Amino acid sequence: MQLVRSPRAGQIRSPWALKMLNKRVKPNKVYTERLKIEAELLQRMSHPNIVGFRAFSKTKILYLGMEACDLSLGDMIEKRVEDDAGPFSVKHIIKVALDVSSALDYLHTKMQILHGDLKSYNVLVNGDFIICKLCDFGVTVPLDENGVLNKEKGVKAIYYGTEAWSAPEVIHGGIISTKTDIWPLGLTLWEMMSLMPPHTQIDDIDESLETLDDSVASEEDYFSDKYGMKIILKVKYFTLSD
């Protein structure tokens, strides 16, 4: 799929972002169905930290019209690496954490669904982190009243996700629940600090953990990145220390 803002360079840019099937790719029922599911879901949702629905076309050209945002967090991370600008500020990291957490709380409690593919490229940012919005709801899965994957809803209960951001229970097998969205949120915040994709340079991280003081509590592992930002790595989530 692809996102477009205007058909040609130099023309007035549309206030919408259009999501459509890439013309260079053969028609695929799976992606067509995902786009329809996403459109139906966005129509039912209303939250300041979730990208807004604008229109859906079922004509010859299938497209989903959404609220336009400036950039994805993933693109911003890539640009920061290119510019050798260093990690994002604590203020911006906390802003992403708060806005995305608010969106997830809405999804998990009000809509009873798991986002299913949370990553930096699915977090949209307006301006200088004025507001962050969650997008891409084509692979959501239903949750039961306890926040656990609802397997009674058949094919819609299959978790997809993106492997690099997947939680341990997805990779190694386990209970899929609301926590499965929290893990990739932690990895996204880690990306903003390390400016690296998740699960890279594992050997370096393992070596640094071996040098930790034995007095550290067993449930928390402390380490500092090359910029001196202390990170608390917990079993299910990441938090910034003072």
From TrEMBL:
Sorted UniProt keywords: ATP-binding, Kinase, Nucleotide-binding, Transferase
SMART domains attached to this UniProt entry: S_TKc
SUPFAM superfamilies for this protein: Protein kinase-like (PK-like)
Name of a matching Pfam family: Pkinase
Residues in Protein kinase domain copies: 1-242
A GO MF term: ATP binding
PROSITE patterns named among the record's database cross-references: PROTEIN_KINASE_DOM, PROTEIN_KINASE_ST
Keyword Nucleotide-binding appears in the UniProt entry: yes
Record flagged with keyword Kinase: yes
Matching Gene3D superfamilies: Transferase(Phosphotransferase) domain 1
PANTHER family found in the cross-reference section: MITOGEN-ACTIVATED PROTEIN KINASE KINASE KINASE 20, SERINE/THREONINE-PROTEIN KINASE TNNI3K-RELATED
Protein name: Protein kinase domain-containing protein
